[in-house]
Amino acid sequence: MGWKSMNRIVNIIIRRFYRFAAILLPLIVVTSIAPWCMSPPKRNVLLITIDTLRADRLGCYGSRTVKTPNIDALAAGGTLFEETITPVPLTLPSHASILTGRYPAEHGIRDNGFYRLPKGYPTLATEFAKAGYQTAAFVASGTLNGVFGLNQGFDLYDDMSVVKGRTQLTDRSERPADKVTAKVAEWLKNSVKKPFFLWVHYFDPHAPYEPPESYREKYRGRLYDGEVAFTDREVGRLLKVLKEAGFERDTLVILTADHGESLGEHGEMSHGVFLYRATMHVPLIFSGPGVPAGKPISSMARLIDICPTILSYAHLNKNFSCSGRDLWPIIAGRSIPEGELIYIETEAPANLMGWSALKGLRTDRFKFIALPARELYDIRADPGENHNLITSQPDVAAAMRKKMKQIEARFPKSGGARSGFSPDAGTKKSLESLGYVGEKVTTRSVKKNPMEMLEVLGFYYKAEESYRKGEWSRAAKIYTKALKIDPDCPRMMHMLAYCLHQMGDLEATQRIYERLLTLDPRFISAWSDLSAVYGKMKEYDKAVACAKEAIRLDPNSTDAYFTLGMIDELKGRKSSAVKHYRRILEINPNHYPALTQLGTLLNADPSTREEGKKLLAKARAINKK
Predict the structure, then answer these.
(1) Cα–Cα distance between 430 and 355 in angstroms, integer?
(2) How far apart are CA 207 and CA 227, in angstroms?
(3) What would be the CATH architecture of the domain defined by 44-337?
(4) CATH code 3.40.50.300 for 425-624
(5) What whole-number distance in Å separates Cα of residue 614 and Cα of residue 602?
(6) Can you say whether residue 488 is alpha, beta or left, with left for phi > 0 and alpha for psi between -120 and 50 degrees?
(7) Pairing of strands 79-81, 84-85
(8) pLDDT digit string, tens, across residues 29-53
(9) How high does pLDDT run on average in the chain?
(10) Are 272 and 346 in contact (CB under 8 A)?
């Protein structure tokens, strides 16, 4: 059959199709519209979280002093929620809430460190993975390392875990924004094989504020603002790469923050201690296919609403349960926003200083804080939270306290995600280097009101600045002043002891650690650190006893195992030393000192030389990083 005959046959078929189209089309529509809605085309999702970002430092949220053109452009092309509240002003628990749609008391991660999301806990990543998406995360801080459980469901989880097993508290585990963008760009260009869920985390606005030189010069005296502007540049680079890779038109982009940053408001120079607006108000922007452009929404949103909204957009929310609500109907203009509540909390004052934890409730209009001395603020009339209405509006306070208790009654009674988890010593010290708790205070008879400890908090911030710079003597003097006001504060005692240890004053260090352990005998880091001090003082029996107590309390105490290994080497007990170093590498395969010591011991023996060489090579590779 020639091509002309074939063409005639095709034309006959087409004419007959159009003849019956009027009859067939209604039937086709009726029978196929539902399946089409149930099986929409898969679109990519890019979740950008910027650590410690105040909403009021973005142009799209009213800033006139910080240049953020890229985030502003994203907001102009999408929908912006003007009033978004985090449930907790801390990195790990807040991100867990973003990824799960649940409160910290539900998923169980209440603070940075010492908590891990239970295995199998449903998250955005697990749901996208089950649906056949490619999943990847690039995080910029050790606070979010995979050991804490947020890596579940990700095909790739690029974190800060492959670093030296350091012992210096001043070593910081973070990655600057330009390096994060470079890693993500490489993945987008070379590794994407199918629709993806991608989480990108930037950490730069977090203290210490150290923007690149050009931003340091431009924002002289306002280095936090410089970090925000630098991060905005990297968000722009990321979105440009997304476009160049051909994904822009098929990708929903969500930009938010885990919490804000207090820059002196209410006496706080960081975040985590209080529940005021500076640390609780965060940006939230949706942009992409189907998202209305240039649409600000004034009703309050919550970080726990992000997860169900993303899953709804991707049609993956059918069997997913959480405490957040789907914001998509509000974004699309299909529903009238209703008043919503958000439970807020921070356990950091208790874990960090042994002071009272804080909790409260926020509505569209009011905020109630259940401090030892309660507070009530009308956010609409007093956004700076300067006028406590607890005595003038007792009925409102009572109603909010009742609602707060009702929400608490729904929370699980168990400790949740902690479940005996304790990170290794290196991770704890990484957390301390970032200003987070590296050791949880377990015993203190009197829980002091953090608002009554502002002078101590001020000393802490000043000491921390010197501490990060390695100015041990200056930091020690400031910690000493703080301890005169709050003499039994375990955190201050621990930091003072560490400074004295670095200064070489072993006897003073010993005395402080012994007093600290009298007050809090479960302070694991104090036991392991005191063990190292006794080792340097050549009181080996005491060093071994302290190390064993640290291991009894925490089987992952790598510092304690390392002290035991070093003492065994000094005593000529090679096989025992090898055993301790191997235990460390079971806990942390990238522990640089253990790799070096074990590699050296094995390399000296012809029967184990090959293994020793491999360990030393790995140590050298880690040292280069």
Answers:
(1) 23
(2) 9
(3) 3-Layer(aba) Sandwich (3.40)
(4) no
(5) 10
(6) alpha
(7) unpaired
(8) 333 333 324 456 789 999 999 999 9
(9) 88
(10) yes
Mean pLDDT of 210-223: 96
- Higher-confidence residue of 501 and 441: namely 501
Phi, psi values for residue 578, rounded to 5°: -60, -40
pLDDT of residue 262: 97
pLDDT of residue 622: 85
For 335, phi and psi rounded to 5 degrees? Answer: -145, 155
Please compute the mean of the pLDDT values over residues 120-135 and round it to a whole number. 97
Report the pLDDT value the prediction gives residue 444, as an integer from 0 to 100. 55
List pLDDT tens digits, range 225-255. Answer: 999 999 999 999 999 999 999 999 999 999 9
The token pair that represents 583 in the structure block = 């235990």
What DSSP string runs through 163-232? S-----TT---B--HHHHHHHHHHHHHHT--S-EEEEEEE-TTSSS----HHHHHHTTT-HHHHHHHHHH
CA-to-CA dists, residue 319 to 127, 156, 186, 315, angstroms:
10, 25, 34, 10
Give the residue extent of every domain in the chain: 1-38, 44-337, 425-624
Q: Which 3-state string (H, E, C) describes 245-311? A: CCCHHHEEEEEECCCCCCCCHHHCCCCCCCCCHHHHEECEEEECCCCCCCEEECCCEEHHHHHHHHH
Strands (E), 464-556: none
Strand partners, 296: 80
What is the reported pLDDT for 62?
96
pLDDT tens across 85-122, in order? 999 999 999 999 999 999 999 999 999 877 889 999 99
- In eight-state DSSP terms, residue 255 is E
Q: Residue 546: helix, strand or coil by DSSP?
A: helix
Same fold yes or no, 44-337 and 425-624: no
pLDDT, tens digit (0-9, with 9 covering 90-100), for 292-317: 999 899 989 999 999 999 999 999 98
Closest CA to 523 of 438, 605, 589, 448: 438
Rounded Cα–Cα distance for residues 481 and 81 (Å): 44
Cβ atoms 543, 567 nearer than 8 A: yes
CA distance 250 to 286: 14
User: Could you tell me the two tokens for 43?
Assistant: 């679109």
Phi/psi of residue 85, nearest 5 degrees? -120, 135
Element at 335 (helix H, strand E): none
Task: Tell me which DSSP letter residue 135 carries.
Answer: E
